[in-house]
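Reviewers of the previous submission asked for a worked example of the structure-prediction workflow described in the proposal, so we include one complete record here. The input consisted solely of the amino acid sequence. No template or homolog information was supplied to the procedure at any stage.
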Amino acid sequence: LKLQFLYFIGRLALILKTMRSSTSKITRRAFHGGVNGTYRVPEIKNEPLLDYAPGSQEREDVIASVKKMSSEQWDIPAVINGKEVHTSEKVAREIPHENKKTLCTFSYGTKDALDQACKAAMGAKKEWENMPFQHRAAIWLKAADLMATKYRSDILASTMLGQSKTVWQAEIDAAVESIDFLRFDVKYAEQLYQQQPVSGEGTWNFSDYRPLEGFCLAITPFNFTAIGIHLPTAPALMGNTVVWKCSDAAVHSNYLCMKIMEEAGLPPGVINFVPSDPSLYNDYIIPNPDLAAVAFTGSTRTFSNIWTHVGNNISTYKSYPRLVGECGGKNFHLVHSSADMESVLNGTVRGAFEYQGQKCSATSRLYIPKSVWEGGLRDEMCEAVSKLHMGNVHSDLSTFMGAVIDEKAFRKVKSYIDGAKVDPECKILVGGECDDSEGWFVKPTIIETTNPLTKSMREEIFGPVLTVYPFEDGKFDEMPALIDGTTPYSLTGSIFAKDREVIRNVAEEMKHSTGNFYVNDKSTGSIVAQQPFGGARASGTNDKAGSAAFMSRWVSARSIKETFLPLRGINYPSMA
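From that input alone, the workflow returned the following structure tokens.
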């Protein structure tokens, strides 16, 4: 009886072991592509905007999230190989519109932390790039759904507190655009993989869209949470692994994005989140032989420095690194006398002063016929700007504007306003006041100038400052060339006119003056999949985020040919 019992136990153990082995094999087979079928991603549409009107549920949700987040003590770590890493160097981040209050502290990456991040990215690379696309895509789609539902109010609250965005600006950025990037990138990746060559008789040709050889570096800005999540995730979706340096000013919202990706199933080491001093990246990441690409959004000067560092180390790399950058802009509105002037007024005020003029595409130059400007539009615009409500964006949801991002930005914007005040060719029409007693507040400012080459018409300010050049009515045809030659940038711009011939001529003459050109609309507000975004010249590499072209930058195609029938000879027919 005892022997029978032992035999039974042994058989049971063998059965359980076999079941575990079979289950593991099934799991591995499903995970690594053993399921047969041609996959299509679900239908992708732009995420709808919520209103946040008084009394709405979404408004109550975001108020609750703001209250919760502002009452918590956040100590944000680096995330390397899926593990939270706290370093000895801590940095505090204040709330811009309450600059005496600390929102969070965070760990600054050290040389050792950056070295660990590079090793983690390279260590995770083989398994990640071999994961079938449908499984990578599923993580992205799940993350988008988590942002659209469970974490929507949290990601808004984080962006409002850390980056001083109004609830509406946070909704269109941190929620809607982030969600759209995640979902549409999946669609564009699928479209890219489907682009296959024709095959001749007796052959079968393939395009294998391989990830890049090495790791990608993502350097992201403060002004869009959506760009924060997009630059590391776009390369990662295509099978690359990433080291992510976010802006210090956006560390709170960007860390939350990282945690959402992890909850969606992102494996350890695929994206490594390491805030750090830029000089450490220049010294220890840029020269790394395994650097395959840089995904960047920020200032023209910083991107130029990265390009220089890469050039200085070009002989050390395994492959030529791809540099993808979206930089600054000096964006314009050009007004024709036939334009709808109410649309000009409303579009210009929104374009110049939403998010305190801190969008890459913000309207900072207005060219308008003098008769129109002095005939009433100047007074109407100044009155409208004087009524814009600026204040604490998280305690008063009726605000139109918050504070600029930090003290450095405050000092820079103030210097341009102070310069205009003493310039005999410039006149401050409205605004011009700066107050840092409670937050980094700069009132929306309009400068009128008689010199179209004055400093505030040429240089990017990145703040709530609009400079207006009223031109003589008969000189409209001279404006496109003037606008084109005034700055080194080529990001966004608009023509306001009803006259179709004027629209056609300006669009043609300014073909290379912008990467995004608008007709009877403001220079800001590009939507993923509708107006792919990017500019050339000093504004960047114009790789068009929000399009399939952007996704193609993160792959290296391999052409494969298979011949079915054996070759039976050496000579060609012409040799007979």
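The chain has 17 helices and 23 strands. We consider this example representative of the routine output the project will generate in years two and three.
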